[in-house]
Prior knowledge:
The protein is an all-alpha fold.
Amino acid sequence: MLEARLREGFVRMRQLMELTRHEMRLRAPFNPLPYSALIAACESFFEHLVQVRQSSLYFQPNMAASDPAAIASLTVPRRDAVAVILMNLYVLACALRADKPVPRYLPSAAIARRRLLDCMAVMEAEQVRRSEVDGKGKGVEDGGRERMGHEEGKGRRWADVYQYAFSGALTDIVENLQEMQRYTKEVCGEVGWESDELVA
């Protein structure tokens, strides 16, 4: 329901942007291009956010069930990645609402994303190593081991598909966020250096 309302909101914003062509300009010429680009970046951000939410539910089911400690070790990188994105969105939203310039430097969502993906890769490698050691230690018969290996391999392939989708969508989210920063700075301006203000 909420997703449908957000999608409808994007459509209505585009309709309003089309109507601005026929409005009178009492102050100065209005350039709709940065606003249109910002709306497109927000819509793309929303679509990739939905994709991240859906893919994150399935790409690590075995780790979540068998190794809670590994999931706990990812809590801090996940928190940092989400916090950086929310911080950027909050700053941009406040700048647009108050019509104030955007700070020149914002927390880097790309670095937080890279740390999260690196930690996920380490946890995945550790899980594979443990599963191989456990399989050898249990001494399963060849037929049973082959059948279990086939089932695990099939589940692993689907987990990899979801993981690649998660990583790709998260990368797209960071790129959309950078676009939103750029277009918001075009709309609201950017905070300058104190030395620039003193010279002026």
